[in-house]
Write a structure and sequence with these properties.
Radius of gyration: 30 Å
Oligomer: single chain
Strand content: over 45%
CATH topology of the largest domain: Methylamine Dehydrogenase, Chain H
Structural class: mainly beta
Number of domains: 5
Distance between the termini: 52 Å
Helix content: under 10%
Length: 767
């Protein structure tokens, strides 16, 4: 079964901390550094609980026995690194880093922090050869005292470097581990081991590998599976060993559950997003009994009930970061295994000054309330797949869908009486009421009544009522999307649609795109009127051309995906508001949340409009929104950022620059509205074009170069925005916005036009 559970969070999440069923007991902060991973340790003699926290500049041990008053016991300075990972065996902590510090081994029985070693050379007792690594991404220590070093820069005589897993025995000698073997089939980013089986997150392969490591000299792969977002970060096995859970460390990714009872035929059984659509990135997940405890960078610590792995339900969260989106700030790791039951989490930058932070949480969650059943067609009893189930009035609103057998599995965190809405395209929605209780499975079956389809029709005309041919029309709602094109007389038809509310968008180059909402029934014949002019918010593809020599990061039309670094926005996190759809032109769409991963490199990229005719002799006013961001931080450092974005207009003979943005521009990294009386700048002809160009010419390693362009418009209306007067209100015929939609609630947008006798008289703001 594949399904999505959507968590709706109140908008206040963006601005401050919010929580549900997790209570913050205490915290500890390290100014002027950032945090990385976390682990816990319990002193066997005193039963005191400790948080072991990786920091950019070292390693810290904090006593959290009194969670209201955490006390740092010691701090060990080390080579600066973004990545530091911690695990324990007995009274020792083992710390890896991607800096060249080897393996840090700390004696936790000495709470002065004075007893530690850096080890990088390990002896192979079989042949006496030495194995060396100075940097590694991660590690795990199993119940037998075998330490697995992941993603290491290994040097073994006679072999190439290994970045899979190195096996070290720390049980035999805690401060001088012995090399046992390694697995080199793929790079391992993170993983865990139980009972001689290794569960490896091979991030660049986008796969989970399950490996038999019982013979350390000859490990063998038992099975593999791709993970939902193909960027497999970590994995954790269930207590009974029948299921494994993974994270993908990328924007808007899923937690996923797999049945591994047959490792040669691994089956995904469920997947879930916390705060779906927010672009947040999951990082580390751990199985704690019937719960899955996960760190999300910008969404904090989350808890999911996995009592039934095919029905994962979120039951708690604490959002510790004052922001949202797909950046790499906020919660790095979490540790749920302290005897007290308290959960400790590490914050990369827990406050505005980028200080690292330790968070200590109390559990207030319980098992979820589960609901399941079967959905059928009321007319014939056939099971319905893809039907949606929505439980209303919940703090954590869970949406799910039925599988191929018509079965659904859902639930919520808190007991109560709920209305559950069942829906499927082509069927009448139905709502049932149910009493749900924690830890109890409630069975609720339903039969949906099918709707009758019909053939819809409409027409697109100009202001004189003449039909316009070849207009693109899209008619859609949450259930259906219909794309069509008008015929020679401006008519269009849509077959097999269903009665209901639809968004309707119609556009063609040479006209202003129209978008609005309409209730469509079998008797509806919708007429859309298009104003002549030039407008493009990139809902449709009007054949803008892209060229230039850039190897990546060329102009692409699509949904922008935001990136940022150190408070500077690079890619926009969405298009310009108040247009028809969410598309824009941006330099490189597939950034994956990684700043610079698909920016402009090596040369230039140009975006060129279709030709537009302004030879009528009228005044013409051009407007658009542009975006440019430029920074250092290229892969090789390179020279200071000195790139630019230019917007030019050509009449076929002459080209004039409308704007140039550079790294020093005060409005860099934001959408900027530009408007021009272009007849004052260039001779207007029938062969006008707009050219947008940006480039990265730095050969020393490159800069981060990102651009975007949206909501292009040419009208005969002046662009100076003024207030509408009472006199003008008295003779007003119609108010429309910039794309021709009649305005009803004029407080929603600042920019409108007065239309008299079919002509634009003035651009204004209603106050």
């Amino acid at each position: 079964m594949k399904r999505i559970i959507i968590l709706l969070i109140m908008p206040v999440m963006v601005f401050g901390q919010t929580n549900f069923n997790l209570e913050l007991l205490g915290s500890y902060e390290w100014p002027t550094t950032e945090g990385s991973d976390i682990w816990g340790w319990v002193d066997p003699s005193s039963e005191a609980e400790y948080a072991l926290v990786g920091l950019n500049n070292g390693f810290a041990c904090v006593d959290v026995s009194d969670p209201l008053n955490p006390i740092q016991k010691f701090y060990i300075s080390d080579i600066n690194s973004t990545w530091r990972d911690v695990k324990t065996w007995g009274n020792y902590a083992y710390v890896t880093t991607e800096a060249n510090a080897g393996l840090l081994i700390v004696d936790l029985s000495d709470m002065t922090g004075s007893t530690y070693w850096h080890e990088s050379v390990f002896t192979n007792p079989t042949n006496g050869n030495s194995v060396e690594f100075t940097a590694a991404h991660n590690l795990f220590i199993d119940e037998n005292g075998i330490c697995y070093i992941f993603g290491a820069s290994t040097t073994t005589p006679g072999s190439s470097p290994s970045d899979g897993a190195i096996f070290l025995d720390v049980a035999a000698n805690a401060i001088a581990p012995v090399y046992l073997g390694e697995w080199d089939d793929n790079y391992i980013h993170d993983g865990m081991v139980r009972g001689d089986t290794m569960y490896a997150g091979c991030i660049y392969a986008g796969e989970l590998f399950i490996v038999d490591v019982s013979d350390k000299n000859n490990p063998s792969t038992l099975g593999t599976t791709s993970t939902p977002n193909a960027f497999t970060h970590n994995a954790w096995v269930s207590n009974n060993g029948d299921f494994v859970f993974t994270t993908d460390e990328t924007s808007d990714a899923y937690l996923a559950a797999y049945d591994i009872t047959n490792c040669s035929n691994i089956q995904e059984v469920d997947r879930i997003q916390s705060n779906a659509g927010s672009l947040s990135i999951p990082h580390n997940t751990h199985v704690d009994g019937n719960f899955l405890i996960t760190s999300y960078y910008r969404d904090g610590t989350t808890v999911h009930d996995i009592t039934y792995p095919n029905n994962i339900i979120q039951v708690a969260y604490y959002d510790s970061y004052g922001g949202s989106g797909n950046g790499f700030q906020g919660c790095w790791g979490t540790y749920p295994f302290l005897p007290s039951g308290n959960i400790i989490s590490s914050e990369i930058d827990g406050s505005a000054n980028q200080s690292a932070k330790l968070m200590i949480y109390e559990r207030n969650f319980d098992q979820a309330c589960y609901i399941e059943g079967n959905i059928t067609d009321a007319s014939n009893g056939i099971s319905l797949s893809g039907a949606s189930i929505e439980i209303l009035n919940t703090v954590l609103l869970n949406n799910s869908s039925s599988n191929l057998l018509g079965e659904y599995f859902s639930g919520t965190a808190s007991a109560g009486t709920y209305n559950i809405v069942f829906s499927k395209p082509g069927y009448l929605n139905d709502t049932l009421s149910a009493i749900l209780n924690n830890g109890i499975v409630t069975v609720l079956d339903i039969a949906l009544q099918p709707l009758v389809s019909f053939n819809g029709a409409g027409m697109v005309v100009d202001f004189l009522g003449n039909g316009i041919s070849s207009v693109e029309v899209v008619v859609f709602n949450t259930d259906f999307t219909f794309n069509t094109t008008t015929d020679l007389n401006g008519n269009y038809a849509i077959n097999n649609m269903y009665e209901g509310n639809y968004e309707i968008i119609a556009g063609q180059w040479g006209y202003v795109t129209s978008c609005g909402n309409e209730y469509i029934s079998p008797s509806t014949i919708n007429t859309i009127t298009l104003e002549e002019g030039y407008y493009d918010d990139f809902t449709f593809d009007f054949d803008w051309t892209v060229n230039g020599g850039a190897s990546v990061g060329t102009w692409e039309r699509g949904l922008p995906e935001g990136t940022d670094s150190q408070g500077q926005y690079y890619n926009p996190d969405g298009d310009v508001n108040n247009d028809c759809m969410d598309f824009a032109y941006v330099t490189g769409l597939s950034a994956g949340g990684q700043t610079g991963s698909n920016d402009v490199d090596d040369a230039n990229t140009l975006l060129i409009s279709p030709i537009f005719d302004l030879s009528s002799g009228q005044n013409h006013y051009l407007s658009y929104y542009s975006w440019f961001s430029n920074g250092g931080g290229g892969w090789g450092g390179g020279s200071p950022a000195d790139d630019s974005l230019t917007v030019k207009i050509s009449n076929g003979n002459t080209t004039v620059t409308l704007e140039t943005m550079t790294a020093n521009s005060p409005d860099m990294g934001q959408w900027n509205y530009r408007s021009f009386d272009i007849g004052q700048l260039i001779t207007l002809t029938a062969s006008m074009q707009i050219i947008i160009e940006t480039a990265d010419w730095d050969a020393l390693g490159g800069h981060w170069v990102e651009g975007a362009f949206d909501k292009f418009s040419v009208t005969n209306a002046p662009n100076n925005i003024t207030d509408i007067t009472n006199q003008e209100k008295g003779k007003l015929i119609k108010i429309v916005d910039i794309i021709g939609r009649e305005v009803i609630n004029t407080k929603n947008s600042p920019l409108f036009y007065i239309y008299e006798n079919g002509s634009v008289k003035k651009e204004f703001i209603i106050k």
